[in-house]
Design brief:
Radius of gyration: 26 Å
Helix content: 55-70%
Largest sheet: none
Number of helices: 16
């Protein structure tokens, strides 16, 4: 049958999406189904939302990120990142005011979320269609099908903790990436985050980035302090997160503080190293060269192998912090 030219008459409804056309036609041919679906979903919304795009396109968060990178490379989109965050405009991460717990409306916390009967769960899913979509998206992130008890946890995050769907999806994406696919683990983590006041998408994004950075450095820190494979105690865990995540200390600076610790105490000590790094952080030192330059300025000589008199470089706060 010969090809026949056709006239296509679009039927516009109440909404219209304008799609940029790439200069290279091959971009269309090489795009995957997910990439095309993500582009249409993005263009259909005035504000970017991972949750909305996932709902419309059926793509996972990872597929959305890959699609955005593809279309940016093709010159179709420009991704504006806030504070080196994920490719997501800050204004798009809108959290309704009523979704942010305050002292007045914050629920009374406990070790787990409430459980719902089958009838209660059905009513809540009917009243909030977003919840059903969120359950599907979270299941995709973990690569599993949720049972009723697991679905209850997600409903509890929305209903009991008033968490935003994008917040929940980001939390699930992080847990999936780190290999924690137990819903009980995610439930516990969500409650701990809530108690810590990390209740908006932006706060969670910053927290998880710091946490992932610390996790990447943990193996080297464990080896440095001779911790081995045992579980970190609370003081160790908090110190590592503070050094790497919060203070953003380079590992060579941490290693130098460790050398000073061993030279002065004859043994590894996380509290002693923590006191040294806290002092350097307060002084504003960010690199090993800055630390060594400060030492040279105070002692009149360049320290070697982390050996110098701490009394010349630290005040009595170091001794008090270490417990001497």
């Amino acid at each position: 049958m010969p090809l026949v030219n056709k006239t296509v008459l679009p039927r516009y409804g109440s909404r219209v999406a304008v799609v940029p056309v790439p200069s290279d036609p091959a971009v269309w041919r090489e795009a995957t189904r997910e990439q095309l679906a993500v582009l249409l979903a993005v263009m259909a919304e005035p504000e970017f939302s991972y949750f909305s795009v996932a709902d419309k396109s059926g793509a996972t968060r990872e597929q959305i990120d890959c699609a955005l990178a593809y279309w940016e490379g093709a010159g179709v989109l420009t991704l504006a990142a806030a504070d080196n965050a994920a490719p997501l405009p800050a204004a798009a991460r809108h959290v309704p005011p009523q979704a942010v717990p305050t002292q007045e409306n914050a629920p009374r916390m406990r070790s787990e979320l409430p459980r719902y009967s089958s009838e209660e769960l059905a009513r809540k899913l009917e009243a909030n269609p977003t919840a059903a979509t969120l359950i599907d998206c979270c299941a995709q992130e973990l690569g599993k099908i949720f049972n009723t008890a697991e679905s209850e946890i997600i409903v509890g995050l929305l209903d009991y903790l008033s968490m935003d769907p994008e917040y929940v999806l980001l939390l699930f994406a992080h847990c999936a990436k780190s290999g924690h696919k137990s819903l009980r683990y995610i439930e516990k983590m969500a409650i701990e985050l809530y108690d810590a006041g990390i209740v908006t998408y932006e706060q969670l994004d910053v927290y998880l980035r710091r946490l992932e950075k610390t996790d990447d450095a943990e193996a080297r820190l464990r080896d440095m302090f001779g911790i081995g494979r045992r579980a970190l105690v609370k003081r160790e865990r908090e110190a590592f997160r503070r050094w790497i995540g919060e203070w953003e200390m380079p590992l060579d600076v941490v290693e130098y503080a460790y050398e000073i610790t061993v030279n002065n105490t004859r043994e590894p000590s996380v509290p002693y190293t923590d006191a040294i790094l806290e002092k350097w952080h307060a002084e504003g030192y960010k690199t090993l060269s800055e630390v060594q330059a400060a030492q040279a300025a105070r002692t009149g000589k360049t320290p070697k192998d982390g050996s110098f008199n701490t009394d010349d470089f630290f005040d009595e706060a170091l001794k008090r912090s270490y417990g001497n």
